[in-house]
Amino acid sequence: MDIKLISAIIIISLALVFYTIGVFSERKAGVLKLKHLIYFGLGLLFDTTGTTIMSSIANATATTTPQLHLVTGIAAIVLMAFHFVWAGYVLFMGRSKSKVNFHKFSLMVWIFWLVPYLAGLVIGMSN
């Protein structure tokens, strides 16, 4: 297995770890905190980095990525970026009620993010 591919798999898996910690620790805490924002940012950073590496591998090998995986992957990164920015806004400018209810949005984004993550696993294992 190529070192680039191994790196991408590890990096995207780290995105899963950080994002999951952020979402579920926020849920457990019952209120959005700075540490959750940091975890969301790390998840976004690692996902974007891993996806960029995977894209460069696909382009270099002329591998075709299933359209659904491509669209959900891009949508997930955009949604994660929006989630991160919105979390920052809620944390620093939002009302107390918004900080308490933010976990509902976080969980929804996390579930959506799992779609391209799991699809990538299935695609990778079937190749």
From TrEMBL:
Origin: domain of life: Bacteria
Keywords: Membrane, Transmembrane, Transmembrane helix
UniProt KW Transmembrane keyword: yes
Membrane is among the record's keywords: yes
Transmembrane segments: 6-25, 37-58, 70-93, 105-125
InterPro entries linked to this entry: HsmA-like (IPR023813)
NCBIfam families in the cross-refs: HsmA family protein
Official protein name in the record: TIGR03987 family protein
Species per Swiss-Prot/TrEMBL record: Lentilactobacillus rapi DSM 19907 = JCM 15042
Lineage, highest ranks first: Bacteria, Bacillati, Bacillota, Bacilli, Lactobacillales
